[in-house]
User: What shape does this take?
Amino acid sequence: MVINNCYYLSMHLLGSLLFILTLTMIPLMAVEKSVHKKLSLSQSLPILEAIKGDALHLGMGERKVYLFVDPLCPHSQDFMDLIATNEKLLQRNNYNIYLYTLKRLHSEKVVTAIYMSEDPLHALLNVMIKKDEIKVEVNPSRDVLSKIAAIESVAEKLDVYKRPYLILTKKPKKKRGQ
Amino acid sequence: MYYHTPKVDSYVTSVQKYRLVIILAYLLITIGTLFFYQPKFVSSDTSFWLNESQEMKRTQAQAYDANYIGQLELKIGEFNDATKTELNTFQHTLETSQGVNHVDSLCGAYRIYTDGDEADSSLVKATPLGVMDAKELEKFVKVYGQEYDEFVNDDFTEVSYFIYSDRPIDIGSIDVPFAYTYSEPNAKADLSDYLLSVLAVIFSIMLFFRLVFHNYISAIAGLFVIAITMVGTFTFVYLFTGDNHVHIAMTLIVVSIALIDYLYFYYRWHVSQYKADVTRATLKTINRNIHPAFWTSLLTLIGLGPLLIVDSIIIQQLSLSVILASAFAYLLNLTLLPALVSYFTVEHPKVEFARFCYIFANKEMHYNKKFLWLFLAASTIVMVIGAYQLFFAQEKMFANNVSKDVISISVPYSEVDEKLLLNIETFENRLKKENSGVKDVSSLLTIMELFNKANAQEDIYSEQNYMQALFFLELYGLEKNIMNEDTLFIRVTIEDTDKNGVIHWLQHYDAMPIYFTDIDSIIGTAKLDKLMTLGVSLGTALVIIGLIMGWIFRSREMIFVGFFVNAIPIIWFGLFLNLFNVPLSLEVLIAMTITVGLASDATVHFGFKYYRSRFYGRTEKHALEVMFFYAGVPVIIGAIVLMAVFALLTLTDVPSLQLIGAYGAILMLLSLLTDLLILPVLLLAIDKFNLNQTKKKKIDPRKTFNLDV
Assistant: This one.
């Protein structure tokens, strides 16, 4: 009887503790959701410098657009479809594409496979636009892993919280008629 | 002077001797002239105002294109998927129509949104509302109504299209699937409209002249004089200005002036045959009218001549039309008319109107001085208020009230940055705050804000936020209607307000350079800009006419009479325009010009008859009777014919002719009332002949002058 009472009491206390903990976490989580670093371009560019060589390049324009995508994210796929088919913007922009996974989509293996392919940009477009299956490598190379890790590290520093995530540089000034 | 009776016997004999030569010479010259000069009749005043516009010059200097904006309202009844499909098809039809640059409408508008949770994705989507199904679309617009309510009414029974084109769109040539109203009425006149106008003139003259004079020669001779005056006038206008475009309503200046001038001559010839033969009647019509008609022509030349140096095609064409019409009519009435009518005699020289002259004279002899001064004081007050508005608040003078309209402007920029966006925000806020009729402003900022909001980002002025919004704008190709490399296109939607007020505000906004890029607003600015010139020109002409009138009659008081008799119809017509918010137009100016031309004619002819009668010892009453009989009756006949012509013109399909018809008829009535009720009373009021009796007795008129007035 005593044991039973102790059990119920401890369970009750534990339940109450969890409830209070949940209540205190909700506002904290909410605050965390709305507050992002939102670094300025001048703050972002030096950080991006670290992964300068890791970008997949799309477009021939003068203006750089840094782009973080998850190949399996439907929003990222729609976005890639839009930019890859927009000739006008391909002429104006140079997209520096970084593959940065969303945990819930479990796309790490696809990312690795894209980076390990012969033509990663082609592979990326096939996966994201044509929705092609990609052969997943069992043993990723150290280079690829370090590239993914570097991108992840930079993305965290930049607080990349959306996919696709865009960082735009300023357009070069044009004279009338150009 | 009014008491001279020129000796014209030998002149009349010569005209009668060479009458056939004279008639044939005029016909040959006229036909020959028409071979070398064919006027291009236009029924829209757009090109005239655009030529005047300083804003158009500014816009062109920036190499910006100006658009016509037509507003099309479709009454769709029920909004369902079938209707929406038709609207989508119609949108495409409009967009691919010749001359159309772009079309703003419900189906052409975009929905800007993010799929799912906007916190997860930076992808903002933009899809045309036309792709949504009818129910979904209706629901969406009701939720986000503010952004789309310029395109559709609350119960979804009417939709609006704003059509931007580089030329006026002939909506009749487009297959519109629903009942509609179009803001730009068909300004292009058909041949049938021109024919109807000509027939209106011919029919009115034939009918009324037949009723009054009981013959056809009066009408035929009148039409001859008018037609040749018309050809002569517009040929010389072309030679002077180098522009062969003649606004169709401008022809009415010639018709009015030539007709009334002709009537003074013909009427005298007609009624003189009551007691005299044809030759004597011809002699009388020449020697009694040669001086006053000369003075009226000289009066218009000196009064309106200085306006020819004003740098305005409109003012030049208006004043030249009056001057030349008056001069040609004078020449023709002295040469062609006596030659033509010399072949005929009048069987019924009596004119029924004559008895009204005695009634008028009798009544006006006992006019109430107090009422006269009250009326003059009221007219002066209205004139002073008008002058004040002219100098200090032009935009309020001729309101241009619109129920729904768009003003399109362009703003040059070098870079889309925070400063530019803040400038636009300040502009939009001030525009809306200081102009209650501004319903919506569509600019780069407003569209970028939609993208920014959809992307769950708050501050548009953050560098990355506005650059992202701009990126998506370009990604969906939505920038082409709101910006190019160096220019922002801003559209201001106004509702139930005076458009001139908003235009005036925009013209005087100096925080950023603004260029008007829609034809209607540019015309509006031209009208506001020219209002002062037009007003000052008119005022100057009236003052000069008054001064010459004083000189002709050697009377200081006649300066005042000359000025007021010409000004009164204009003053009260101006008040009418102001009270009823009638916008300033070329038709208004033409109607006013006709009035000045006719009122100055009437003042000289009335004055001549009255002064001459008084000089030869007639009593005031008798002088009034003579004046009414010889000058009043032609004016009444002429005014009735012209009012009939103007009234018939309102039946045409051409807005310009409808307007000139309405304004002309009103002004003609005001002018007639002034001539019959005010001018005689003013002549009585300034009459000093009784005071000068002694002086007069020293001259024995029988030795020098003809007593027959």
